[in-house]
Each structure stands twice: as structure tokens, then as C-alpha cells.
Amino acid sequence: MSGILSIILLTFNYYKMETLNYFELLEKTKGGKIFSLTYSRADKSLGYDKFRFGVKSYLKGGSLKYDPIKAKNLVLFNMSKKQYRTIKFERIISAKIDGIEYKFFNDTFADSMERIDKAIENINKLNKIINR
User: Fold this and answer.
1) For every residue of the chain, which 3-state class applies, written as one string?
2) What is the C-alpha to C-alpha distance for residues 91 and 95, in angstroms, rounded to an integer?
3) Phi-psi category of 58—alpha, beta or left, where left has phi over 0 and alpha has psi -120 to 50?
4) Is the pTM of this model over 0.85?
């Protein structure tokens, strides 16, 4: 029973943390503001660095052949490596902007939590039937 309680408490605390959606993240980081991201790379390793939107000094010409906003991609400048990076929004784990840490989770996690909530609800219904 304590294992289930731990999961419920961790879930509750996770939902209490501040989160941002894609457009809120863009809004909070506009104007060349430096911020840090923790994210999952394509090879499943974790990445962490300081980034910034809007850096033009290292561009070599050309333009993107797709709309990063429609694809929910972030085209960022990595401040330590002096290179551009494209990070999928769904791969972001956390961001620190103006000293505030924001947590992110993808829809798969949210869907899982809905299924867990429904399962707990069904268990409670069964308990009521059994305890009559």
C-alpha cells in the first residue's frame, strides 16, 4: 500500500509544479533572454545547457524549409557551444527562466495519469460494492 501512496504523492507534487505550454515558453523567453533547458536528446541521453532565441551573428545564410512553430520545435542558440540547436518541445523536461524552474511532461504522461485516475476510481467503486 505504501508504494501506491508514494506514487500518488509524487504525482500530486508533480502537478503542483509550475508548467508552461509551447506558446507560454516562447513568450517568457522572447527578447534574447538567456535561459536553461534540460531535455531528452534523440538518442535518449539527457542534455542541459543555456540557450537563447533570436541570435543572428552566427547565421551562414539560408532559411528553414519548414515552420518550427507548426512543428512545435524550438530553434535555439546554445550559448556555451556557440551553435544552433533545434529541440522538439515534447522532449523538454525542465526550463529555468528568470530563476523560476518549470517542469514539462508530454501527453503520454498525462494520458497515463488519466488512466491511473480512472483505475483508482474503479477500485473505489469495487470496494464500495464489496463492503456493502
Assistant:
1) CHHHHHHHHHHHHHHHCCCCCHHHHHHHCCCCCCEEEEEECCCCCEEEEEEECCCCCCCCCCCCCCCCCCCCEEEEEECCCCEEEEEEHHHEEEEEECCEEEECCCHHHHHHHHHHHHHHHHHHHHHHHHCC
2) 11
3) alpha
4) no
Whether residue 49 contacts residue 81, with contact meaning beta carbons closer than 8 Å, is answered with yes
C-alpha cell at 59: 547565421
Q: Tell me the pLDDT of the chain (132 aa) as tens digits.
A: 455 655 555 554 444 457 788 888 889 998 889 999 999 888 888 999 999 998 878 777 777 788 888 888 999 999 999 989 999 998 998 999 998 888 886 555 555 666 677 778 888 888 888 887
